[in-house]
Design brief:
heterodimer, A: mainly beta, seven-stranded mixed β-sheet, 0% helix, globular, B: mainly beta, six-stranded mixed β-sheet, 53% strand
Chain lengths: 116, 115
């Protein structure tokens, strides 16, 4: 598999639990993005990394959301004290990250999070 | 602010019919990129096409074609001779040439192709 992979594919959490979602980008891709997709809606941007640097986290909905990419490859999106409104599909995307940074973003299959 | 509107929530056609999915966008940027992605039931967003704002040539790829009209801020997608495998949700998205790297998506159009 040369594409973006995400794990787990499905996660059920009780309200108040912490969750961690993992993303493995395409090998060699410098840029990594997280999006949140509510049911019946288009994806919405959460955060963006270039290598290990988090360059934009303006889309994170609250301080309960935290993302990291410590070695510039795998990324983890962590949600603390989950709430029912966090239920959504979390999509990860990666791109080559060329100088112009307008290269195409390629998406993984997503993690469907359900908070009970 | 950027905005992408896909007014068609759901379209149902019979196999072999042609179908056009509409996309209208708003942006203050003079240069930008437009994208179409396909989301089958498996959930993964599959990249279909990227167009830049300074190239208004229409593009055809097999049964797919795209009509970009900057004057009306539209980037419509046509599937010719639709097939059952085309059934999916299709998203139009906008990315500025400079600045924020986030894609702005429309709300999607669900296409159902009946056999």
């Amino acid at each position: 598999g040369a594409g973006v992979s995400q794990s787990p594919r499905y996660k059920v959490a009780k309200r108040g639990q912490d969750v961690a979602l993992r993303c493995d980008p395409i090998s060699g891709h410098v840029s990594l993005f997280w999006y949140q997709q509510a049911l019946g809606q288009g994806p919405e941007f959460l955060t963006y990394f270039q290598n290990e640097a988090q360059l934009d986290k303006s889309g994170l909905p609250s301080d309960r959301f935290f993302a990291e990419r410590p070695e510039g490859s795998v990324s983890t999106l962590k949600i603390q004290r989950t709430q029912q409104e966090d239920s959504a599909v979390y999509l990860c995307a990666s791109s080559l990250g060329l100088a112009t940074s307008t290269d195409t973003q390629y998406f993984g299959p997503g993690t469907r999070l359900t908070v009970l | 602010a950027q905005k992408v509107t896909q007014a068609q929530t759901e379209i149902s056609v019979v196999e072999k019919e042609d179908v056009t999915l509409d996309c209208v966008y708003e942006t203050r940027d003079t240069t930008y990129y437009l994208f179409w992605y396909k989301q089958p039931p498996s959930g993964e967003l599959v990249f279909l096409i990227r167009r830049n704002s300074f190239d208004e040539q229409n593009e055809i790829s097999g049964r797919y074609s795209w009509n970009f009209q900057k004057s009306t801020s539209s980037f419509n997608f046509t599937i010719t001779a639709s097939q059952v495998v085309d059934s999916a949700v299709y998203f139009c998205a906008l990315l500025p040439y400079t600045g924020r790297r986030a894609l702005t998506f429309g709300s999607g159009t669900r296409l159902q192709v009946q056999p």
